[in-house]
Protein: Polysaccharide deacetylase
Amino acid sequence: MPRRVVRRVFDVWEAMFHRMFRLEDIEPGAEHLFYITKRKYTGRPFSVDGVSVKRFDPVIEMHMNNQLVERALREDENVVRAMVVLIRQARRSLPALARALQAEKYQDAKALYGITFIHRGIDHFGFQTLPLNAHSLMTRLTKWHLKNVLRMLNPHAEDIFRTHSELLEPRLVVASKASIVARYGTNSALQETRDTRENLTAATSVSPTGRA
Structure:
């Protein structure tokens, strides 16, 4: 299929996905790595930061900004370096995420979560990663969906799957809302210290070797 057709299909799908799931910018008018939406949790129960989440609890679901993902993969064919860039993008987006989480409509949500390939080093930013149930239909559908998104974003996706399959295993990324708000709030002195330390840690948490 011609690349321009694939691009058009992807753009239409993205627009439909945003409308169906009511994804919202974490900071209107600014470009960040995350979109969020509030929904009822339907996965396996988990605990994070002392908060327990069970089925049908209100949660904040995070989704990636695939335009930023595409840009990172297009600008550097080395998938490991591209992931480091995206982790830094995530770090820059976290203060805006913390502000968004304090909106009244999210007050009853105790935790946030997402399913993503881009999770290496994310624990340094206050998140935990949990394995997906490898045998569930939902996990298989999620992997299929994420791989197809990557195929549409990057013409070298099949090479990436072959050479970096261990980096592309999706996981559940979770955090309590309270911990993210506390960690990335308005205490600027503490925030600057964390900025420096966490950016250095993220840059070294993934070894920049191998080409896609």
In short: The chain has one domain: 3-205.
